[in-house]
């Protein structure tokens, strides 16, 4: 694997779930981390813990309180970063969410708007911002977009979330075409179901309903997804991992698990 010690890795959605797991893995490799989310106290606690554990291998963290739905704030983010974090090498667009499982006839347009703004528009804004500020001027970089099996296969009740992740997939493929002459890689990671805060958010805090999504089969874990992200990020610079799909051994499609979903 390539040595990525000292590289600047920006992770959106670092306050929970996958993003937090990614932060640990890049921290142990000695990266400088920009940790982005809305819950600043969680980011600060994570940064403190990573400094304590991995400061000796060179890990440094810069937490940033940002609502990624605020597009002007995404556009301004590069100019807000201190010099030692400003040249982002690896942008991990991970912040995202699903809201509800309503059928198309019942979709809340407010929920649709929040999902599309968070899962798609924010990715476009941050990608554009860091391509312009950090990656294109140095002709070097890696954009890693966290999609989902829900971006490959639609399921009943998933229309808004499915649409957002399918859009992310199309966007990422187009981005790969647009950047083909550059030393800039675009990777899409599509995990199956993992018990994070994802279903709690989806079901508006209903812990029992959220837990039921993961009952009755062996679950994939956030660290398994982190393995794949780190794998893509540590290939030699000539190698572009375009797509990775990763699921539990007991999941065979977006909603097909070893027990009824
Ligand atoms: P979590 O709910 O555990 O974490 C989501 C993260 O996104 C949090 O850190 C949250 O931070 C952040 N976030 C959400 N909205 C915003 C916003 N407007 N601005 C800034 N940050 C935001 O979910 P996961 O870790 O599971 O999800 C991470 C990604 O993985 C998402 O894109 C999701 O769609 C995808 N995914 C999840 C799967 C799963 O089964 N868990 C499977 C496949 C893909 P905060 O609330 O502090 O702002
Ligand atoms: C999240 C996976 O299947 O719960 O992207 O929608 S699923």
UniProtKB/TrEMBL annotation:
Keywords: Oxidoreductase
Cited InterPro entries: NAD(P)-bd_dom_sf, Sc_DH/Rdtase_CS, SDR_fam
Source taxon at top rank: Eukaryota
UniProt keyword Ribonucleoprotein, yes or no: no
Pfam family, one: adh_short
Transmembrane segments: none
Family to which this protein belongs: Belongs to the short-chain dehydrogenases/reductases (SDR) family.
Name listed for the protein in its UniProt record: Uncharacterized protein
């Amino acid at each position: 694997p390539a040595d990525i010690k000292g590289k600047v890795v920006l992770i959106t959605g670092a306050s929970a779930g996958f993003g937090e797991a990614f932060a640990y893995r890049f921290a142990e490799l000695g990266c400088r981390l920009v940790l982005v989310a809305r819950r600043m106290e969680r980011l600060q606690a994570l940064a403190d813990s990573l400094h304590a554990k991995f400061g000796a291998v060179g890990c440094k963290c810069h937490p940033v309180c940002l609502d990624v739905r605020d597009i002007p704030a995404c556009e301004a983010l590069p100019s807000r970063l201190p010099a030692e974090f400003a040249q982002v090498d690896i942008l991990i667009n991970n912040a995202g969410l699903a809201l509800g499982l309503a059928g198309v006839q019942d979709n809340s347009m407010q929920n649709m708007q929040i999902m599309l703004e968070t899962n798609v528009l924010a990715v476009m804004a941050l990608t554009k911002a860091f391509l312009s500020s950090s990656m294109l001027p140095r002709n070097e970089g890696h954009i890693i977009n966290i999609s989902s099996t829900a971006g490959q296969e639609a399921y009943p009740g998933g229309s808004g979330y499915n649409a957002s992740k399918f859009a992310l997939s199309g966007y990422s493929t187009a981005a790969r075409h647009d950047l083909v002459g550059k030393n800039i890689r675009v990777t899409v990671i599509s995990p199956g179901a993992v018990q994070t805060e994802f279903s709690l958010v989806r079901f508006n805090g209903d812990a029992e309903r959220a837990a039921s999504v993961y009952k009755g089969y062996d679950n994939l874990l956030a660290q398994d997804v982190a393995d794949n992200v780190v794998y893509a990020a540590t290939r030699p610079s000539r190698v572009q991992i375009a797509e990775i799909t990763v699921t539990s051994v007991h999941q065979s499609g977006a909603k097909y698990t070893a027990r009824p979903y």
